[in-house]
Amino acid sequence: MTAIEVPGPEADWQPATQPPYYTGKNPAYQYSVWEHSAPLFQMIGALTLPVQPVAQRLRLHVERSWDGLDELDVVLFRLDGFSFAISKHDGHPLGVSYVWLTQPHEQADKALNTLLEAVGIGEDAVAFRGDAREDRAERIATSQDAGSPDGVSGATLPTALWARLRRAIGATSATQ
Question: What is the rounded distance in angstroms from the CA atom of residue 28 to the CA atom of residue 98?
Fold first, then answer.
């Protein structure tokens, strides 16, 4: 077989993963498996802790990925009939980990309760229930205790900042 040489990239091509996408001269745009799959997921809430403690408790492997916002930690797993994903972006302004169902289910509250029970944590670890991308979650979440991300008890924090940023850069869910 004859060796075929592929030329190197053009000098003025930006990395294919570098935003803003489609604005440079590189004709390719690379997306991660997470970025490709996550718009199909059903967000069911957020936890006030990183992915690692949950992964350690359930003996899961934390994967690193990225999307149009930032790099992130993510775990995907099945638990008691529900298919979960938990993700946390490195630069998330509130420091929460989103909880998703990878296969939408009508019993989202039951799924989140199942996760809390298996991990051995209570409702105080829940930043909010529901989907931050929906209007009802554009509400202001009240911090439940002094362990809130800003360390202030009873403070209000906008839960939808990250969702608004996703919409601003065009990384919205296909289900909206």
Answer: 29
Residue-level pLDDT at 155? 33
For position 91, what pLDDT does the model report? 86
DSSP string, 3-18: --PPPPPPTTPPPTTP
Q: At what angle do helices 51-58 and 108-119 cross, to 10 degrees?
A: 70
Residue 89 tokens, joined = 């972006």
For the chain, list residues with pLDDT below 70: 18-23, 135-176
116-to-17, 46, 113, 168 alpha-carbon distances in Å: 35, 11, 5, 32
| Backbone torsions φ then ψ of 53, nearest 5 degrees | -60, -35
pLDDT at 24: 76
pLDDT at res. 29: 82
Could you tell me the CA-to-CA distances from 163 to 6, 83, 106 in Å, in that order? 40, 22, 22
Element (H, E) at 167: helix 161-168
Type of residue numbered 152:
V
Phi, psi of 73 (to 5 degrees): -100, 140
The pTM score is 0.70
Q: Three-state SS for 24?
A: coil
